[in-house]
Amino acid sequence: MTTLTETAKDERTTASESPVVRFREVGKVYDDEGLRVTAIRSVTFDIPKKRFAMIVGPSGSGKTTLLNLIGCIDTPTSGRLEVCGQDIGTLGDRALTDFRSRNIAFVFQNFNLLPVLTAYENVEYPLLLLGMRASERRDQTMAMLASVGLTDKRDHRPNQLSGGQKQRVAIARALVKKPAVVLADEPTANLDSHTGAEIIALMREVQEQHAVSFVFSTHDPQLISHADDTFVIRDGELTDRSSQGRN
Amino acid sequence: MLFKIAFRNILRNGRRSAMTLLAIAVGSIAVVLFGEFVAFIRAGLETNAVQNVGHLTVFRTGYFDYGAGNPAAFGIESYENVIRLIKGDPEIGPTLNVVTPTVSLSGIAGNFDIDASKTFLGAGYVPADREHMRRWDEHGVSRHRANEDPALRDDDETIGVVGVGLARVLGLCAPLKIPNCPPRPVTPRPAMGAASADLPSLSDEDIAPGNHGDAPRLDLLTATASGAPNVMSLHVARAEPQSARELDENVVIMHLALAQRLLYGRGERQAVGIIVQLHRTEDLVLVRARLAALFAAHHLDLEIRDFADREPFYRQAVGMFSAIFLFIALIMGVIVLFTVVNTMGMSVVERTNEIGTARAMGLQRAGVRRLFVLEGTLLGAFGASVGVSLGQVIAVLFNHTGAMWTPPGQAAPSPLEVLTSGMQPLLIGACLLLMVIATLAAVVPANRAARLKVVDALRHV
């Protein structure tokens, strides 16, 4: 692991391609009925494209806040944040939602599948939000279910699936719309180590297959060991960063 | 997909949705049953009124407001020509069921065998026309009423009918076999004045020949159009109970010719009114307008009154029952409103995480709002459809119970029913009303769901 001052070398290695996420002195302060809590303190860093990036740090360090900011489901209170080249601070709620639907996908710790939909419908749902034609939707959904090995479970509701299968559906749902970046918040936390390893392998496989950027927040050493880039955050500040030099 | 998600979400919490549907269904049943009951009351009142006074009555202008004190002064001359004019009009001809003259009068009825007398309100009809009018039953609500033999006869002018109260006062209980008639109290017999003594002998001169069996006789004293006293005898065939005590103790129904002789003596016989009974009440407005145009074109000084004008009780009773119906519908609406608000509110809380997930994936706020509003609409539609269907089944079953009552405006008991035919506007209206209420009830929780911050929603446990 390198120190923050040593990151210039890594930035040079990926400078040929613009980053998928660019933080510039981004801060986030929560104001809870007069009680101000600083979650992020003026962080500046880039996350390169098409990488397996991990944001790591202890509980309460600001990992999830960073992920939420990248996911455009929260907005910074200071600084400038660009995702896929778009300054998200300039977008209103409607435009931000539209931006999310096209560019960003999520894999949640608790899978967050819609319980009233089947595996197939859960994967199809993001395409519906994009207004895609039915035949195109069907083809992409089936292809995605096949790539996560769940074709035979297509008509199962989430409560009929195991934890690993649910996370596979969640990964398929995230990738089906071909987003620029997939955000995964502790994706293996609710899985046993064997299933967690399978899911990590699957994510790595589809990441390479679809050339998509993955950004994780995690404690899981097993997952961290797969990172191309690691960003260490503590008390809302980026304290360290390392890169495997892939790409 | 939106519809699919909404539908499945309703089925998701089965017990809660069932309770909500039950509340909506009970609301629908209450609205439908009471609405059909009010419709039955309205139809019954309308049928009663139309059987008695027709849909429309043509009077000389001013009679309706001023004629009660002196009906003879407001007679319609050459009324046969007016009737021919009405019946002959090609526009309204097919809508007419009965067009018949009538005479209203007042005077004193006496049973001088026992020295009893009483003021009376009389009405004269053409017996066959009256019988035809009494068979009018557009709504099918008087099919259970006993078909009594017509008391008035075309071939006998002196036969008539009186109210039960009048018969009792004039001592006709025994001859008319009126049940539950208390014995007549003994009162001091006043000395008969010269005029009173003359009345029986005066009327004797006018008694028409005929076989009246044991029918008791009354003498009717009136003032003619010229102001002269006039007396005629009436043989009472039957006493019929009337809806109001005042009417019951005063009414005398007689042959038109007898009423005309009482009112006009041996002068020109006129009619006080011309009753127009239609096949269908819905033609009333059209016929009324056409009659007004017809009379204006022929320079006839006549006015037209409908049965609601002539029987104010109809309007009052219908107004009262309609107000009660609206009150019940309002209460049911409020219950449904709060039930759906509560159900949808709980659903929003339970599904906060899902809302956050869908929003994170790119569902707009409007999409969230649409989903919850649609769920409210579906709840309303299912609940109201089930309720309306059950309401109809209960109504049909209820109509087979044979319950009896004495409806407002009627003197005799009749079956207590609810009107089930021709109630499509009520059924559709109840469905739509409850659907709209359920939809509106879902708007507040839907807005709350749509306004949730994605981050907060995802954090919700």
Folded structure, characterized:
The complex is a heterodimer of chains A (247) and B (461). Chain A is 35% helix and 28% strand. Chain A has 8 helices and 11 strands. Chain A has helices at residues 7-14, 63-70, 93-103, 119-129, 134-147, 163-175, 193-210, 221-224; strands at residues 2-3, 21-32, 35-47, 52-56, 78-83, 86-87, 104-107, 181-185, 213-218, 229-234, 237-243. In chain A, the strands form 2 sheets. Chain A has a 7-stranded mixed β-sheet. Chain A has a 4-stranded antiparallel β-sheet with strand order 3-2-5-6, with helices on one face. In chain A, strand 8 (181-185), helix 7 and strand 9 form a beta-alpha-beta unit. The longest helix of chain A is centred in the C-terminal third of the chain and has 18 residues, at 193-210. Chain B has 2 domains: 2-45 and 315-459, no CATH class; 62-300, no CATH class. Chain B has 17 helices and 11 strands. In chain B, the strands form 2 sheets. Chain B has a 6-stranded mixed beta barrel with strand order 2-3-7-4-6-5, surrounded by 4 helices. Chain B has a two-stranded antiparallel sheet with strand order 10-11. The longest helix of chain B is centred in the N-terminal third of the chain and has 40 residues, at 14-53. The chains are: A alpha/beta (247), B alpha+beta (461).
